[in-house]
Design goal:
Layout (H helix, E strand, L loop, with lengths): L1 H7 L7 H4 L4 H31 L6 H23 L6 H31 L3 H41 L3 E6 L4 E4 L1 H7 L3 H4 L4 H4 L8 H11 L1 E9 L5 E12 L5 E10 L1 H16 L3 E5 L5 E4 L1 H7 L3 H4 L13 H13 L4 E2 L7 E3 L5 E13 L2 E10 L1 H23 L3 E6 L5 E4 L1 H7 L3 H4 L10 H5 L2 H11 L3 E8 L5 E12 L5 E10 L1 H59 L6 H32 L4 E5 H15 L4 E6 L4 E5 H18 L5 E11 L2 E8 L31 H11 L4 E5 L5 E5 L2 H11 L1
Parallel strand pairs: 18-20
Antiparallel strand pairs: 1-2, 1-5, 3-4, 4-5, 6-7, 6-11, 8-10, 9-10, 10-11, 12-13, 12-16, 14-15, 15-16, 17-19, 20-21, 21-23, 22-23
Helix pairs in contact: 3-4, 4-5, 20-21, 21-24, 22-23, 23-24
């Protein structure tokens, strides 16, 4: 406090005004001068401080601050000079001067130290040059900024335009890092642009390339662009097929800086294309798709089958290669006309069209054209059908129709006519005119009910017959019909419905046959059938009577024969000593005659039974049956040497009992008539004669004179003496009746001393069996 009081105290000092003797002019001169100096000193630091504040980038700015402090201190000393004119506070003025000294000394020292640096500062000329360079730089910067603003505006405008497109577009730098990603890409792939900056597109999208990536990048660097199809994956993992276009961006020096990739989603179009191709491949016709220049863009597999070309051989080639050369000129004009006015149409009408195969052969075709609207313009799809078979069929049909027309018009034994849906007659042939008496000009247009009797018309039979034909597969029936002259005839009628390709009823075909004679024959046959039935009844009764008579004959004749034979044997045994040789001989002849008479009765009964027995047809193994019979024959004469040959597997559809009787007689005769030979041969078998199974029994025995062959099968007919070969002469007659009952026939071939062969057939049953076996 003492220091402060001392500092601001005046003490015993006199103010400075006493020194100037209070000369008014002198006092005010110093006052004004000191005030102006102080004001200047205080203004300079303010300017320096503002300058330092505005130019913080200047070197030595701290030096300007020291100068400011020093100048302020100097200004304060001048203010104290004015103050001390009237006050004597010299201690305070001295303190301010001390402060000024303290500020000036560091300022002077520091100024000395930085003087070399200050000397190195540019001079005015340099500053002018620097200023000019600075102005130029400023101008260039302004131009650059203007270009940058323009570029940014263009980039922003381009980005906004790219955001408007439906194609997914993104830009990546040469390190494949994404630097731009439009909204369509966000929609397509599901990634936002903020998520993808700096990431690699091929990793994000799991790109599958159609060729190695290095080859694609090399093509982009060489040509500046590339396009093709890529497989991408969305954020959700779904697969996409895109048509991608890459464009290379370079700087002013031609250095690559980025790649713009534009991708269009063609997934659906690829599916549609696959469906379209599948449809093309499934088409039964040859399909060829042609562009406006007439070159083939696409073809299906059926084209290969029809024309003989492989697909690569025709793609890009003129479609005229599939046509004969004589059509090339006209076809070009027709093709150009069609492209001017495309539309679905068929090229068959009025034209004979032909295709040309790879081997040079021509064939008729039918062609249908259809326009296809595509991104590349209008294409034309041609469906080509080989109608060779149809042409042949049509030609055959025309020929057949002509033959049918000639045939129908020439048929006279049946009436052929056509009816419309209402039953009106639309055609008439000669047979109809002959049967019904109407000429074509008289009857065509009339209703077919004209041929029915009045009572049938009244009952509605014509309409009923027509409805039955229309609703079903046709009508067939018989009945009385009326001719033009009013006479009636028995007719067999068939009415068939006629439908078009769509199944619509177009009319009827009617066939009428005059069956009057057959009707009369049937009636006569019926009368004969009734007569025959009556005869059969009478015959049945007669057979029963005959059977009773046969039984009576068998019983009544056998009894006296047995008595004669018995008594003859008793005489030989009991009175042999009383009889001489002639007596005994006569008794033996009596006994032989009675035994022969018994055999004859048995054979007659057998022959009668063969005729009356009911037949039961079954499969009979004749080889086995013949074997059994020959074994029985061997047992009767075991001492005989007979070679018997029986063919294996001989079968027939016949009555087994009757066939056993027949073979028993035939084989028994062969055994009997070979008895005079020391070594005999008997054979049984089957041969085929004109498709008919023929059985035979052959032997090498006595044989017979073929001149008497017609007597063989008569009852009681013999060609050999009883003393030579015993028998009754009924056996072969029995065999013949058995064969005839089977619907067959029997005959024999022989010569005296060279054996005989008996052949027989067994009718239709055996014929069918034989064909089945074959």
């Amino acid at each position: 406090m003492i220091f402060i009081e001392l500092l601001f105290a005046s003490g015993d000092f006199q103010p400075h005004g006493f020194c100037y003797q209070w000369n008014v002019a002198l006092v005010w001169l110093n006052v004004l001068s000191d005030l102006l100096i102080a004001l200047a000193y205080f203004a300079i630091p303010i300017v320096l401080l503002r300058f330092i504040h505005k130019r913080k980038d200047l070197p030595f700015s701290w030096m300007f601050a020291l100068f400011g402090v020093f100048i302020i201190a100097c200004g304060a000393t001048h203010l104290m000079e004015v103050w001390n004119l009237w006050h004597a506070q010299y201690w305070f003025a001295g303190a301010i001067k001390a402060i000024t000294a303290a500020a000036s000394i560091p300022t002077a020292i520091l100024l000395a130290r930085i003087m070399p640096q200050v000397i190195d500062l540019p001079n005015s000329g340099q500053w002018i040059q620097a200023n000019a360079a600075l102005q130029k730089e400023v101008y260039e910067r302004r131009e650059l900024e203007l270009d940058l603003r323009i570029s940014e505006a263009k980039y922003r405008e381009t980005a906004e335009l790219l955001d408007l497109t439906d194609d997914a577009i993104f830009v990546r730098n040469m390190m494949d890092e994404i630097v731009f990603w439009n909204r369509a890409a966000e929609r397509l792939y599901g990634w936002h642009k903020e998520e993808l900056r700096g990431r690699t597109t091929h990793d994000v999208l799991s790109t599958v390339f159609p060729m190695p990536l290095k080859e694609i990048e090399a093509e982009v660097l060489e040509k500046g662009h590339w396009e093709g199809e890529l497989l991408h994956k969305r954020r959700d993992g779904a697969g996409l097929v895109v048509f991608s276009r890459w464009a290379l961006r370079t700087d002013s020096n031609g250095k690559p800086i980025s790649v713009l990739e534009s991708n269009r989603n063609i997934t659906q179009s690829k599916r549609d294309e696959k469906k379209f191709r599948d449809l093309l491949e499934a088409a039964p016709d040859a399909i060829v798709i042609v562009n406006k220049e007439g070159r083939i863009e696409l073809a299906n597999t059926q084209m290969q089958a029809v024309f003989g070309y492989d697909k690569p051989e025709v793609l890009g080639k003129p479609v005229e290669m599939l046509l004969p050369e004589r059509f090339h000129g006209k076809h070009t004009g027709h093709r150009q006309t069609y492209f001017r006015e495309p539309g679905g149409r068929e090229m068959r009408a009025g034209l004979e069209l032909y295709g040309l195969r790879k081997d040079g052969t021509e064939f008729p075709v039918e062609i249908s054209l259809s326009p296809l609207e595509t991104q590349d313009g209008v294409l034309v799809m041609s469906a080509i059908r080989d109608i060779t078979h149809r042409k042949k069929t049509e030609e055959a049909l025309r020929s057949s129709e002509e033959r049918f027309r000639l045939l129908v018009s020439g048929i006279e034994d049946c009436g052929l006519l056509m009816l419309d849906q209402a039953g009106l007659i639309v055609s008439w042939n000669t047979g109809s005119e002959r049967i019904k008496g109407y000429r074509a000009d008289e009857i065509i247009g009339q209703h077919f009910s004209k041929f029915y009797s009045p009572e049938d018309v009244k009952e509605g039979r014509p309409g009923r017959d027509l409805r039955q034909a229309a609703e079903g597969t046709g009508f067939k029936g018989e009945g009385w019909r009326v001719r033009k002259d009013g006479t009636r005839f028995w007719a067999s009628v068939a009415i068939d419905p006629l439908h078009d390709e769509r199944g619509h009823l177009r009319g009827f075909a009617k066939i009428t046959r005059d069956m009057t004679e057959r009707k009369r024959a049937e009636e006569a046959l019926e009368r004969q059938r009734n007569e025959l039935a009556r005869s059969n009844a009478e015959m049945t009764a007669a057979n029963k009577e005959l059977e009773a008579f046969s039984y009576s004959v068998s019983h009544d004749l056998r009894a006296p024969l047995r008595s004669i034979d018995g008594f003859s044997l008793a005489l030989l045994e009991d009175y042999s000593d009383k009889l001489d040789a002639d007596g005994k001989k006569h008794l033996e002849r009596v006994r032989a005659a009675t035994q022969r008479m018994g055999e004859l009765i048995d054979d007659m009964l057998n022959l009668s039974r063969v005729t009356r027995t009911t037949m039961l047809l079954e499969n009979v193994n004749l080889s086995s049956l013949a074997g059994e019979l020959t074994e029985e024959l061997r047992k009767t004469h075991p001492e005989r040497r007979v070679e018997i040959r029986i063919q294996d597997g001989v079968e027939a559809e016949a009555d087994s009992h009757l066939l056993r009787v027949a073979l028993e007689n035939l084989l028994g005769n062969a055994w009997k008539f070979t008895s005079k030979r020391a070594d005999a041969q008997i054979e049984f078998g089957k041969i085929s004669s004109n498709g008919t199974a023929t059985f035979f029994v052959r032997d090498d025995g006595a044989g017979f004179d073929p001149a008497y062959a017609d007597r063989l099968f008569g009852a009681f007919q013999r060609l050999h003496a009883m003393s030579e070969f015993p028998g009754t002469g009924v056996g072969l007659a029995t065999v013949q009746r058995i064969v005839h009952r089977h619907g067959g026939r029997i005959w024999a071939e022989s010569s005296v001393g060279h054996g005989a062969t008996f052949y027989f057939t067994l009718g239709e049953h055996t014929l069918l069996k034989d064909k089945h076996d074959q």
